[in-house]
Amino acid sequence: MPTPLQPAVSDLIANWINPDIQAMIAYHVPAATGLIKLDAMENPYIWPASMRAEWVKIISQIDVNRYPDPEAAALKIKLRQEFAIPNNLELLLGNGSDELIQILLLAVGGNDHIVLSIEPSFVMYRLIANWTRIKYVGVPLKQPDFTLDINAILTAIKQLKPALIFLAYPNNPTGNLFPSELIHQIIREAPGLVVIDEAYAAFANASFIDEIATYNNLLVLRTLSKMGLAGLRLGYLIGTKDWIEQLAKIRMPYNINILTQVSAEFALHCKDILDAQTKLIVAERGRLLQYLSRLPQLTVYTSAANFILFRVPRSELVMENLKAAGILIKNLHGSHPVLDNCLRVTVGTPEENYKFLTEMQKICTNRS
Amino acid sequence: MPTPLQPAVSDLIANWINPDIQAMIAYHVPAATGLIKLDAMENPYIWPASMRAEWVKIISQIDVNRYPDPEAAALKIKLRQEFAIPNNLELLLGNGSDELIQILLLAVGGNDHIVLSIEPSFVMYRLIANWTRIKYVGVPLKQPDFTLDINAILTAIKQLKPALIFLAYPNNPTGNLFPSELIHQIIREAPGLVVIDEAYAAFANASFIDEIATYNNLLVLRTLSKMGLAGLRLGYLIGTKDWIEQLAKIRMPYNINILTQVSAEFALHCKDILDAQTKLIVAERGRLLQYLSRLPQLTVYTSAANFILFRVPRSELVMENLKAAGILIKNLHGSHPVLDNCLRVTVGTPEENYKFLTEMQKICTNRS
Question: pLDDT grade, residue A25 (50/70/90)?
């Protein structure tokens, strides 16, 4: 029985929710049940039975009634070991890199600060900047190959003095690895922080971790998601003690749950298995690139990640045909003007890729 | 080899990190290894072997290479069932209530909006308001019994027009349950949202969930942490579709990892076991209150939660003596002026409580 004098919910929302959030449309993840899932940059390989059995033994020892270690000390030690992170650098952990991106944006927010990135790139930079109320500027990549427009970026840096720059290396959704000299140039010219997002580092054999000691304004963002642990949601940020100390202040004290801490640590003990899976993915990426490039009507972009971007005459039609064949990839049409009719396929198992290629061949030669 | 022309890290931090964050001191969680842990409002009971075995069987089926269900649909169904959440209400899940508090603050932030709470209460309201750049005002509770100062609150509401009010019910760290009529009055007078934080609902037998349909501006915040699942980090916010739809826009799409989703759902299937543990805690709370009240030199406050607040002549001395006896409780001295020499003990197992009481008796009768 609502009191008659109460304002309507719609009026309350209009009055009190930030207008930018009111205007936002929720991020939608399409249903994938029963489909071959090549839409989300997941490693397609499950764990071997022996690894699973060992994991479950460790899980069975966990007491979930207690709060997790707020520092995740054991997991951090393992991350340091496996990714050769020098002792003079510190780590900050998040629920996926998403949480760390939000921490970074909150840390530099206020005071009319600006965050800069390139477009198109990982959409969460812009989205989270929007709801943390920090002005976001995206410098367009060059056409037609999505290369860095270094002059435009350096001009933007001079004019806007960004507090924070995000650079995905390799870039998502374009898949390319920007030349490292250009990244160095950006880091040197940036007045504020530069975060190199190495979510796809496992597939690229390139990293700026070793440069953190060289530049006072450099941080590197990583995630375990693309190396086979997407379900655990673990991201990590690497930087010098002074930076991480500031950022750690606005991390929720128990943000990484106990099951993720223990499971990620365990999985890193078996990193050789995950690395072998990554190698398979890289080999399959080469095969996919080669076959896709031969198909008529496609523009295929090179990739240093675990996905391939390509352009078709009519992306919606291709999506429909693939879906009818039981395959889900990502339609980027509409997400950014330069991605008109662009699709992104995640590298799957050889069987999955075969099915995808077979279907693409049908679509390209018969129907479109 | 740092380039000589680079600014120092300290200058970069001073220039680019928000001054409020620079001024903050990181939230510190004291080490508890080897101690009887009565500091963190944890349920002290671990899972019986049969429950653990069933859980592990389910865990062993999980493929962590895939992203978790972004909607956590199965877990939401179970939460609805077990907590009798009506079908016309929606749920928003977070990594602990902390993440949901941040979502709420980000949603109403900007435009000079103000958030209101009482003091002392859950510290995260103020802390997160600080780093999300929304002005926080805390209305002091009445002395000496930490009751609601309804006139001061209603005056603050009229003057400040808060976009959001947090009320912990029961309150932490004071433990008391405010009279429901006063909460109703606050909800009716508030121009914006009111969030009733029911983190300790399991111990209080009181809730505002059934009032959500009555008031257009009411949301209820809950967590599984205090009912035995602190390690999983699962909070949930209950509200009407319109509100949850707005707030869901600024939730990270895959915020709840797969292990927490599956384990929380499983634990709720065994809710009778957790409820029996809660009953033991409530019975022990009564015993602790009774014995503590008899000790000389203590002021003991009544509690509707799983902890008890009490005041001693010298809190630091009591902490030291308890620690020497292997017991960790929480010293609130210094956290707020009205909490001078206040300590907070979480209700443990009968054995733990006995040890704590024995030690307190020694401290109160012999030493202080």
Answer: confident
User: CA-to-CA distance for B224 and B229, rounded, in angstroms?
Assistant: 6
The tokens for B10 are 């300290």
Residues with Cβ within 8 Å of residue B61, at least 6 apart in sequence:
none
Q: Give the confidence band of A99 by pLDDT, cuts at 50, 70, 90.
A: very high
- In angstroms, the CA A243 to CA A107 distance is 10
pLDDT of amino acid B4: 56
pLDDT at A311 over 90: yes
Question: Cβ–Cβ of B42/A67 closer than 8 Å?
Answer: yes
Asked if the ipTM is above 0.90, the reply is yes
Q: What is the rounded CA–CA span in Å between residue A71 and residue A83?
A: 18
Q: Which two structure tokens, joined as six digits, stand for B146?
A: 């930490």
Question: SS3 for B272?
Answer: helix
Chain A residues with CB under 8 Å of B106 CB are: 18, 21, 131-132
A48 and B CB contact within 8 Å: no
Distance CA B217, CA A192 (A): 41
Confidence band, pLDDT 50/70/90 cuts, at residue A32: confident
pLDDT band, very low/low/confident/very high, at A5 (cuts 50, 70, 90)? confident
The rounded mean pLDDT for chain B is 96
Owner of token pair 């030291």: B320
Question: Percent of chain B scored above 70 by pLDDT?
Answer: 98
Q: Are B254 and B99 in contact (CB under 8 A)?
A: no
pLDDT at residue A3 in the model = 55
Q: Nearest CA of chain B to the CA of A39: how many Å?
A: 11
pLDDT band at B368 (very low <50, low <70, confident <90, very high): very low
Q: How many CB atoms neighbour CB A1 within 10 A?
A: 5
pLDDT at B31: 81
Interface test with A, best of B25, B59, B90, B252 (most A CBs within 10 A): B252
pLDDT beyond 80 at A2: no
